[in-house]
Design a protein that fits this description.
With 417 residues, the chain is an all-alpha fold. It has 3 domains: 1-65, Arc Repressor Mutant, subunit A, CATH 1.10.10; 73-213 and 287-417, Tetracycline Repressor, domain 2 (Orthogonal Bundle); 219-286, Homeodomain-like (Arc Repressor Mutant, subunit A, Orthogonal Bundle), CATH 1.10.10. It has 18 helices and no strands. The chain has helices at 3-40, 47-54, 58-61, 68-91, 97-114, 116-126, 136-158, 167-186, 198-209, 219-237, 243-250, 254-260, 264-288, 292-308, 311-322, 331-352, 362-382, 388-404. It is elongated. The chain starts with a helix and ends in a 13-residue tail after the last helix. The relative contact order is 0.09.
Length: 417
């Protein structure tokens, strides 16, 4: 072998060794930073402390990371890539959107249980940092959100998941539920692990998502769908809207519309008449308010509206309080606990009188509620720019979805297993 070839081999070997050493050093820095930031919190951790723990000089860290915040976000990005690989393996060979969703929820809960340092940093240190939402780490989380959304869309196309609900809100509910399962486990320490609650989580989600087996829609439901389709058609085209267009939008035959309304004019006039009846009924219910489902729905709606009307307090509550690890050992957390016990009491009352399903896990429902609230509010603050009208619509819809999770309207779980 010539001297030139030998020299090239030595150079290639040297470069390969350098890459291994570089990768090893970077991984060691990330591992040490994760442990220290998890133990002390991001604000109380320092670059010099991390360097000392790794056994390197402080300037070496700046060869790999811009600073402490970049280091934090890099931990999340690194772990998210691991999770993507883990999830791909978990979903391999699974058919059907329902089965994929079950596996995704279990995998997320299990991953959080095993990777406790990482999930604590994501929830408590990253979600409350506005800069996080501009990073590759957050984009990696968005890719994961896209996987969940594709499963939900797949289920709607299969006819397994409902197509009449906002699946973006369902995604918020699912991610929020899993987050607060982690908080319950890792921070407030109500439970040892989150994964054993998988079935309780799925029972609530199934009642929101799954198309319920049974006969065709009732007469009342058909009439409501025709009226709702009329609202949309008349709003878009005015009096030029046709019965055929309304029937198509409602998912019924043209002749079915005439079973409920003599002609287009009667349908048109029935829309405000129906709304007036609904408004009067709601007023009466607000004064009586004895039904557990209405109480829970009212509680959820009031909670969202309360924070939405005071955006300054919302930011404080989310970013400085709810996503702060010290909050969970403070007297303020006891106050939140008392407030949440009002909701828990309402749910238990509904279970006791048979309004709600007897297999509802009250703690898991509370986590779903808090998680959905948190994810929706963070999305409004950092990502979306919806109008106030859209926000109110989302509040009403998520209140309906959460209430749906409590009510057993037919045996659904066994049909899809």
């Amino acid at each position: 072998m010539s001297d030139q070839n030998q020299r090239k081999r030595r150079e290639n070997k040297s470069r390969k060794k350098a890459r291994v050493n570089t990768s090893s050093t970077r991984d060691s820095i990330l591992d040490s930073a994760s442990k220290i930031m998890n133990r002390k919190g991001f604000a109380d951790s320092s670059i010099s402390e991390i360097a000392q723990d790794v056994g390197i000089k402080e300037p070496v860290i700046y060869q790999y990371f811009k600073g402490k915040e970049d280091l934090l976000f890099s931990i999340v990005e690194n772990e998210m890539e691991k999770y993507h690989a883990f999830l791909r393996d978990q979903l391999q060979g699974i058919r059907g959107a329902y089965n994929k969703l079950r596996k995704l929820v279990w995998s997320h809960l299990r991953f959080n249980d095993v990777n406790r340092e990482y999930i604590t940093l994501v929830i408590l240190e990253c979600r409350s940092n506005a800069n996080f939402y501009q990073t590759d780490a957050y984009r990696s989380i968005r890719r994961y959100a896209g996987i969940l959304r594709s499963i939900l869309d797949e289920g709607a196309k299969e006819g397994v998941f409902r197509s009449d609900i906002n699946l973006a809100l369902v995604r918020d509910i699912i991610f929020g539920l899993v987050d607060f399962q982690a908080i319950t486990c890792l921070i407030s320490e109500e439970i040892k692990d989150a994964a054993p609650d998988h079935e309780d989580c799925m029972r609530l989600l199934e009642r929101i998502l799954l198309v319920r087996p049974g006969p065709d829609i009732t007469t009342k439901e058909k009439r409501h769908r025709i009226l709702q389709a009329g609202v949309e058609a008349f709003a878009e085209k005015g009096s030029n809207a046709t019965i055929s267009e309304i029937a198509k939008q409602a998912g019924v035959a043209d002749g079915t519309v005439y079973e409920y309304f003599k002609n287009k004019e009667e349908l048109l006039f029935s829309i405000p008449e129906e709304r007036f009846k609904e408004h009067l009924s709601q007023l009466e219910e607000d004064f009586s308010f004895t039904d557990p489902l209405r109480k829970v729905h009212h509680f959820i709606g009031c909670h969202f509206h309360l924070y939405l009307t005071d955006r300054d307090f919302l930011r404080v509550f989310l970013m400085i309080t709810l996503l702060n690890r010290r909050f969970y050992s403070s007297k303020a957390y006891e106050g939140l606990g008392q407030y949440m016990r009002v909701l828990e009491t309402l749910v238990r009352e509904g279970i006791d009188d048979g309004t709600f399903a007897s297999d509802c896990n009250v703690r898991v429902f509370r986590n779903m509620f808090l998680g959905a609230f948190t994810h929706m509010m963070l999305r409004w603050i950092f990502i979306n720019k919806e109008t106030a009208v859209n926000k109110f619509e989302e509040i009403n819809e998520v209140s309906d979805l959460l209430a749906d999770s409590l009510v057993d309207k037919g045996t659904i779980s066994s049909v899809y297993r």
